[in-house]
Amino acid sequence: MIGAGLSMTAGPLYLSANAQPTEETEDSHNYLEYLARQEPPQLTPQGSFGPSYEDILGPYYAQNAPFRGKVTAPLEPGEILLVRGRIWSYETKRPIAHALLDIWQADAEGKYDKTDAKDRLKISQFRNRIRLLTDETGYYEYETVKPGKYRVGASYRPSHIHYLVRAPGHRQLITQLYFKGDPHNDTDATAKKSNLRVELETVSGAGGKYLRATFDLVLVAGESKEPAGAGAGAERPGTPHLKEIVVGTKV
């Protein structure tokens, strides 16, 4: 069977007569234009080029989330959401390659995988959390579902996604992505101060419709440290043979 398979693939390859050119990838940041100008780009959603708003860590952060490009499990209930963006350096005005992002959120019902800040998650218990690295152009992208609101005391926290970003030579950034038009943005103690509210667009794909948002962040120079305090605990996976990944700090 192997031999037959090889013989079938031998010889020249030809495109079909009705083959069409591959569609050009959308340059959502005008990145090529930026490289030509050598000027800071217009950032989404904060508009001007400046250090990004620093927000609270919250009680539900956990270290050592798995590396993957999809936050939620397959067929997770909720509106499918694609988030993309770039991580920038305020000093160099250039994108940061291989910046490390921790991303975590509630599900569509507003529930986290931790119910208490003191919970220590095993690696198998991580839900709706990922780590990922930006590519050589500072770009990142992930799929998730739009998180739900949840009650805190007498009020609600608006829909949001948590970010913790670290890169060599830069101070870590703790912030949150919010959504324009959320009725709880202006009543939430932290959301009302933030300018990081994304516009959602609906995109039609071959398999149906999904939401899409662009979220750029800017880091300032400094030392990146391991987060501490409420929510920082999590069990390390039992894989001592794996090398530690170092991106500004051990993770």
Provide a descriptive summary of the structure in words.
The protein has 251 residues and is mostly beta strands. The protein has a domain at 48-219: Protocatechuate 3,4-Dioxygenase, subunit A (Sandwich). Helix content is 6%, strand content 26%. The protein has helices at residues 2-9, 31-37, and strands at 80-89, 100-105, 129-133, 139-145, 150-152, 155-157, 160-166, 173-179, 197-198, 201-205, 208-214, 217-219. The strands form three sheets. Strands 1, 4, 10, 11 and 12 form a five-stranded mixed β-sheet that branches. Strands 3-2-7-8-9 form a five-stranded mixed β-sheet, with no helix packed on it. A two-stranded antiparallel sheet has the order 5-6. The protein is globular and about 65 Å long. The termini are far apart. Mean pLDDT is 83; it is low at 1-9 and 235-251.
Report the end-to-end length measured between terminal Cα atoms: 46 Å
Mean pLDDT equals: 83
The largest sheet, given as strand count, sense and whether it forms a barrel, is:
5 strands, mixed
Tell me the name of the CATH homologous superfamily of the domain at 48-219: Aromatic compound dioxygenase
Helix-strand makeup class: mainly beta
Estimated helix fraction: under 10%
Count the DSSP helices. Answer: 2
Low-confidence stretches: 1-9, 235-251
CATH topology of the domain at 48-219: Protocatechuate 3,4-Dioxygenase, subunit A
CATH class of the domain at 48-219: Mainly Beta
Range of strand content? 25-35%
- CATH architecture term of the domain at 48-219: Sandwich
Q: Judging from the principal axes of the Cα atoms, what is the shape?
A: globular
Total strands: the figure is 12
SSE pattern: HHEEEEEEEEEEEE
Radius of gyration: 21 Å
